[in-house]
Amino acid sequence: MTHPPHHAPTRPRDLVGIGIGPCNLSLAALAHPLTGLDAVFYEQRPGFAWHPGLLIEGATVQVPFLADLVTLADPTSPFSFLNYLRSRERLFPFYFAEHFHIHRAEYDAYCRWVAGQLPGLRFRHQVDTIRWNPEHDVFEVDFTQLDDAGEAEALGRTHTRNVVLGVGTAPHVPEPLTPLVQAAGVPVVHAADYLAHRDTVLAAGHITVVGSGQSGAEIFLDLLRHRPAGRERLHWIGRTEAFAPMEYSKLGLEHFTPDYARYFHALAEPVRDRLVAAQWQLHKGIDAGTLAAVHDELYRRTLNGGWPDAVLTPGVRVRTAGRTPAGRIELHLEHTQQGSRSRLTTDAVVLATGYRERPLGRLLAGLDPYLRRDSSGRPRIDEQYRLELDPSVTGSVHVQNAELHTHGVGAPDLGLAAWRSATILNALTGTEPYPLPARTAFTTFGLAQPSVRAQRNGRTERLTPLPEGK
Predict the structure, then answer these.
(1) pLDDT tens digits along 169-197
(2) I need a labelling partner for 414 at 20 to 30 A (CA). Which of 55, 206, 302, 372 fits?
């Protein structure tokens, strides 16, 4: 099959979204009431699904329920989480439950409820390439329509003035462990697939969890709760120097505000790169409640004397890994502080080793001649989440959750999804359908502040902070 030949577009769309995760679903929900905006969203999966392998019973979202798809940009939207509860006649139970952080499975159900109401979503559509057509001033988006088995069924092309990339992240497997994942019959699974393989993992004699973030803690806790006391046979290791709690103080959380994103964006590239690496505990630590639950479960198993057969060791990296002649898994470990090395033989491994931004190279290959890059070869992204392209390109390409290097730790945070979607829609329409506040944090980040935008009586004004003493 080949894509349709190039021809003059009859009527280009205003917006094509690529990927339907929470970020682009937020954009679709906020775009829906804008009747003059012709938008469509493509996703290769058969339907909406949010980390299905991690919907562990009792696991909660790490942001408050107000960080839904729309509320922080438009609390009156019919696609709010509270309206979802209302539609399910569950407002009073939620009110009395007093849950500020909802269950992960409930967030997934809410998102699927929103997706079911948006007519512009096209699942089983895999986008292949994006090109700029300078003759007609439009983007050409080629896609493959998939059948129920995920096989190519038909090819198509859409023309659009603007594109938003929301392809999300992909499970990351460290290089030393890649051979184990690729080997057939070896029970080594990434956390993203944990629930699908949970029974197989639990049936193993000895289990090792690699990764000291939230997913590692939740999986270790789930395994611990389902292993017999005194015969747990569990190992939990991670590279960080401690099983560290996530920064969750109120002022610390202001790193996830638009104010901090603006400040971060204005910093020099080397400073931004240094900060991203240093701020891991802002978004890669473990929820204090999960840490407490792990400790409580371990403590409960000491009540009759003895210690649980569980080893928890931070500060450990996996150097190499392989299989023993008996078919078990052998991990070669190094303690980063001691400089000591050892071997760990186990029967199953769960890799809670996180996610990485999906590479955009394949999708953006057709735009490469127009794309502006930083000194590390990454796309340059402006304050409004727009790729910096050659001025000859009159359309725009925005990104969602692909701007960690330019906007900071808030890029993957659900709490900024609605704000970012509103910012993109304001930029695309030029009419600011979603007025956004000029200030969002008590903290003043930096001495020199960039001017910001505010809405005053229907007009957009540039605001610059007053000098000291004024």
Answers:
(1) 999 999 999 988 877 777 999 999 999 99
(2) 372
What is residue 408's predicted lDDT score, i.e. its pLDDT?
95
CA–CA distance, 159 with 163 (Å, rounded to integer): 10
- pLDDT tens sequence across 203-212: 999 999 999 9
Beta carbons of 412 and 401 less than 8 angstroms apart: yes
Backbone angles phi, psi at 278, to 5 degrees: -80, -20
Structure confidence by residue, pLDDT tens digits, 9-31: 678 999 999 999 999 999 999 99
Q: What are φ and ψ of residue 272, in 5° steps?
A: -60, -45
The letter for the amino acid at 75 is P
